[in-house]
């Protein structure tokens, strides 16, 4: 693949998850693949896992990784076409991106949505301008609407932990939060689950939190969390702000927090979350600290997901 922005860039998500599993079994199996190559990781927003796992993955492929917190330390970038730059932005992406394309063989970017203007966020203007102007492969480190590296790690986690000999029931469950969050992780998980097609996939959320249907096509959607949890093998917990009443918090319904009591209806369900997590708001301590929780394994798998993606891009663009 050329770029990695969405599941739709991946010819075969199962094969990519297999590649991630192979790197997990043999981390140094392609340690010369990236020799002499350099990845630039640009962060317009904070990160712990994505930032570090991508660097570890690059190093294990023999690549050099340079991280730049462009949001905090760089010149304020302008993305609007034809902007009269007499305000706070200092440098246009049209000028910056081609330079970054000369410094790096792969450019990876984290750029969260503004959550003010849905059309603007869902146009993915920021990351697509890097694609347009950098001239090198671009990897999403979470963009305005999707988080594909997270979803690939999630798919790996489900495939390596499920031993049921049937299709697992996987539930994406909305959770309360203190602030409006992007829809990225939820959109992306739904997209990967439906593109993969290996699970009975259910999305549950309070009214008003319907996700963009392009990502949930093929999923069962219900406002009844108890019903969704019945017999579930995996519960993926995530908050998102409203897509319909864009960027709003409509419900701070604490009843939606995942507790051990709620897990009783599941099939000894495993619990997933992308992290960072607000303890005792989204999930209770007793869930996160129990054997139900896969969150540490899931975050560990971010390395293998990133390694599979970078290896594929290196091979495809050799
Ligand atoms: N990269 C994984 C999640 C990133 C982001 N969470 C956050 O911003 C949490 C912030 C907080 O808890 O204050 C999100 O939901 O998309
Ligand atoms: N899950 C995830 O993307 O974590 P970071 O925001 O810490 O990178």
TrEMBL record:
Record-annotated Aspartate/ornithine carbamoyltransferase Asp/Orn-binding domain positions: 185-311
Enzyme class of the recorded protein, top EC level: transferase
Reaction catalyzed: N(2)-succinyl-L-ornithine + carbamoyl phosphate = N(2)-succinyl-L-citrulline + phosphate + H(+)
One matching Pfam family: OTCace
Keyword Hydrolase part of the UniProt annotation: no
EC code: 2.1.3.11
Example of a GO biological process term: L-arginine biosynthetic process via ornithine
Gene Ontology molecular function: any one: amino acid binding
Binding site for carbamoyl phosphate: 47-50, 75, 110, 147-150, 274-275, 302
Keywords: Amino-acid biosynthesis, Arginine biosynthesis, Transferase
Binding site for N(2)-succinyl-L-ornithine: 142, 177, 238, 278
Aspartate/ornithine carbamoyltransferase carbamoyl-P binding domain residues: 2-160
Biochemical pathway: Amino-acid biosynthesis; L-arginine biosynthesis
InterPro entries tied to this protein: ArgF'-like, Asp/Orn_carbamoyltranf_P-bd, Asp/Orn_carbamoylTrfase, Asp/Orn_carbamoylTrfase_sf, Asp_carbamoyltransf_Asp/Orn-bd
Function according to Swiss-Prot or TrEMBL: Catalyzes the transfer of the carbamoyl group from carbamoyl phosphate to the delta-amino group of N(2)-succinyl-L-ornithine to produce N(2)-succinyl-L-citrulline. Is essential for arginine biosynthesis.
Quaternary data: Homotrimer.
UniProt record similarity statement: Belongs to the aspartate/ornithine carbamoyltransferase superfamily. SOTCase family.
Name this polypeptide is given: N-succinylornithine carbamoyltransferase
Organism: Flaviaesturariibacter aridisoli
Gene that this sequence comes from: argF'
């Amino acid at each position: 693949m050329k770029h990695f922005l969405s599941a739709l860039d991946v010819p075969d998500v199962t094969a990519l998850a297999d590649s991630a599993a192979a790197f997990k079994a043999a981390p140094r199996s392609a340690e010369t693949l990236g020799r002499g190559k350099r990845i630039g990781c640009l962060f317009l927003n904070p990160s712990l896992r994505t930032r570090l796992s991508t660097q570890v993955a690059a190093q294990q492929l023999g690549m050099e990784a340079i991280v730049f917190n462009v949001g905090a330390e760089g010149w304020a970038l302008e993305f609007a076409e034809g902007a009269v730059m007499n305000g706070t932005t200092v440098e246009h992406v049209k000028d910056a991106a081609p330079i970054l394309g000369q410094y790096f063989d792969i450019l990876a970017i984290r750029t969260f949505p503004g959550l003010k203007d849905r059309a603007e966020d869902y146009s993915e203007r920021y990351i697509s301008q890097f694609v347009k102007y950098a001239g090198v492969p671009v990897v999403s480190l979470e963009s305005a609407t999707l988080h594909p590296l997270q979803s690939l790690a999630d798919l790996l986690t489900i495939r390596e932990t499920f031993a049921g000999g049937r299709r697992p029931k996987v539930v994406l469950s909305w959770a309360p939060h203190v602030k409006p969050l992007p829809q990225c992780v939820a959109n992306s998980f739904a997209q990967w689950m439906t593109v993969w097609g290996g699970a009975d996939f259910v999305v549950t959320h309070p009214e008003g939190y319907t996700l963009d249907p392009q990502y949930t096509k093929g999923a069962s959607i219900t406002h009844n969390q108890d019903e969704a949890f019945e017999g579930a093998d995996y519960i993926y917990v995530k908050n998102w702000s409203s897509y319909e009443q864009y960027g709003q918090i409509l419900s701070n319904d604490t009843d939606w927090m995942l507790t051990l009591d709620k897990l009783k209806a599941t099939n000894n369900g495993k619990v997933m979350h992308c992290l960072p997590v607000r303890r005792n708001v989204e999930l209770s301590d007793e869930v996160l600290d129990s054997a139900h929780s896969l969150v540490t394994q899931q975050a560990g798998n971010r390395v293998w997901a990133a390694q599979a993606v970078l290896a594929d891009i290196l091979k495809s663009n050799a």
